[in-house]
Amino acid sequence: MSDNNDNVIDFFKRSTKSPLGSDGLAKEKFFKGFPYVKLTKDSNGNFFSKEYLIEYSKKIYYIVTVMRENSPCTALYKYKVSQASLTDFLNEFKNNNTYGQIIDIDKYIPEDLA
What we know:
The protein has 114 residues and is α+β, with helices and mostly antiparallel strands. The chain has helices spanning 50-59, 86-94, and strands at 30-31, 34-35, 61-70, 73-82, 101-108.
């Protein structure tokens, strides 16, 4: 990771803003066993707009890389999945309706959104 990227969130670093537990250490925030960080403002210090975020999410895609065994080699398949279909796509693997192992998920933002 780059040291000059201010937008990177370190989930493993203990926050000094979190309330302290009985042992004097900061409590980490979790949702169903997963650490999270709550964001209320964008990088310019403005509160998020619900309408803008919904419209933005409809325009982005995820590139999901899946590894599958094909005789005589291993192959990678890259799928372009819309935001609305992402959970359905992931559930296909969770429920063992398809074979393969998810290797990577990247967010794809069309260039005209910038």
